[in-house]
Amino acid sequence: xxxxxxxxxxxxxxxxxxxxxxxxxxxxxxxxxxxxxxxxxxxxxxxxxxxxxxxxxxxxxxxxxxxxxxxxxxxxxxxxxxxxxxxxxxxxxxxxxxxxxxxxxxxxxxxxxxxxxxxxxxxxxx
Length: 126
What we know:
Layout: H1 26-32, H2 34-39, E1 57-58, E2 64-65, H3 73-82, H4 87-96, E3 102-105, E4 108-111
Antiparallel strand pairs: 1-2, 3-4
Helix pairs in contact: 3-4
């Protein structure tokens, strides 16, 4: 997103969920229900040269921001660590750009960004 982006809010100050037309399964919804998809509030589409900043979004259900807007991925990583995520998870999330809601591995549950600490099919995080 561009510097200065502010996610829209309703009259009560709550974030308005925004549909991301570029996110995975939603593209199928766009193809199947074009009229309905066109009525959903959508994330703006910015040109690459405009989208110079970063923000963590919850996009499984609501499509709302979880973090402030940051100038760099390193700032996102540092913010995640300040929020209590491990450095390894924050680094993995920033490298991957996303994280599943939940991962169950060898009887251990890893939630959201903490699951980004797991290397694919390798050891569990320390």
